[in-house]
Design goal:
The chain has 322 residues and is of the alpha/beta class. The chain has helices spanning 37-43, 85-88, 130-133, 136-148, 164-174, 187-195, 222-231, 253-257, 270-278, 297-305; strands at 3-6, 10-13, 25-35, 51-52, 56-63, 72-75, 78-79, 99-100, 113-117, 121-123, 156-160, 179-184, 199-202, 212-217, 232-240, 261-264, 288-293, 311-315. Helix 4 packs across helix 5 (164-174) and helix 4 (136-148) crosses helix 9. The structure holds zinc ion (ZN) (2 copies).
Length: 322
């Protein structure tokens, strides 16, 4: 098995053991995968993960239930027990016994093959390309924001951060008809929003006037979180989308003084993401900066960390044949 593994460092491993699917699991042949901020944080030591990295992917079911075999799929990443109190109360993404593909206790998809529970499979319609399908998982995470916070037309909303996730969250929010502004540090990535008619501003040019009802922090930095807390109006909501290897030393006093609701937000609904891509409501293609082969693991991770790049894809197997 060809794979990108992390054990103290990120490296390409040409002879990693093949995954062995457990009962109720399918074996998926990975076509393409995407590198996200979580992978970069894991590479810095976040969560103490060891093994095959990767959780954003599209592939074809090779082995598993007959009705799935040969199907092109995207895969949910939380593998759950369906027995604990969280699962039984309908919050299975918070399963107490979960493993998470390429993040916690389970090998990920930066490999030729990955084992995935059958319940995690979602068919990908033909009019979504492999490149676009890699974005289903992070786009679902973007949709989670509007699942958790009702955003209405004309509401004043800001996104802090114009990186990989910020650009997806911005497109999801823009479709609600809210008054949206994306605030970031990189004119090149902000330009992607401008091209879609979304208002933007450079972070140094923003006066934190505490006038936004909802602020989504996708910055991945303590400074971004502090800016978000300065932008949100009293009794407003700040949604946190980033996890950090380093504990952020943000000043949270404004959240107390202004009685701000701070809402953590992680994985989201795949059907919404698949639907939006199939209906061409969300355009992810301009976000792809480079596509590299699995063998160039170090270069790919370096490219993913470069500020001017947005999404780095890994090309693993061609869509058909073996
Ligand atoms: Zn991710
Ligand atoms: Zn559970």
């Amino acid at each position: 098995l060809h794979a990108i593994v992390f054990d103290r460092q990120v490296r390409f491993e040409p002879n990693h053991p093949d995954p062995t699917p457990g009962s109720g699991e399918a074996l998926v042949r990975v076509h393409q995968a995407g590198i996200c901020a979580t992978d970069l944080e894991i590479a810095k030591g976040y969560g103490g993960f060891r093994g095959v990295l990767g959780h954003e992917m599209v592939g074809t079911v090779l082995e598993g239930p007959r009705n799935w075999r040969g199907q092109r799929v995207a895969c949910e990443i939380n593998c759950v027990c369906r027995k604990c109190d969280m699962c039984l109360s309908g919050l299975s993404t918070h399963c107490r016994n979960r493993t998470v593909m390429g993040i916690t206790g389970r090998d990920g998809c930066f490999a030729d093959l990955v084992a995935v529970p059958e319940a995690n499979l979602h068919g990908v319609p033909d009019n979504i390309s492999d490149e676009e399908a890699v974005f289903i998982e992070p786009l679902a995470a973007a949709y989670q924001v509007i699942k958790q916070v009702p955003v209405e037309p004309r509401m004043n909303v800001a996104v802090v951060g114009s990186g990989r996730l910020g650009l997806l969250v911005a497109q999801v929010l823009a479709a609600t008809g809210c008054r949206l502004e994306v605030i970031g540090r990189n004119p090149r990535t902000l330009d992607q929003c401008e091209k879609k008619g979304i208002m933007t501003r450079l972070a140094d040019e923003v006066a934190p006037r505490a006038d936004r009802e909802v602020v989504v922090d996708c910055s991945g930095s303590p400074a971004g979180l502090e800016l978000a807390l300065g932008l949100v109006r009293p009794r407003g909501t700040v949604v946190l989308k980033s996890t950090h290897a380093d504990r952020p030393a943000a000043n949270l006093s404004p959240a107390v003084v202004n009685e701000v609701t701070i809402l953590g937000s992680r994985c989201g609904p795949f059907p919404e993401a698949i639907n939006a891509l199939a209906r061409k409501q969300i355009d992810v293609r301009p976000m792809i900066s480079r596509t590299l082969p699995l063998e160039q693991a170090a270069q790919a991770f370096e490219a993913a960390a470069a500020p001017d790049n947005i999404k780095i894809l890994l090309k693993i197997n061609p869509p058909s044949g073996r």
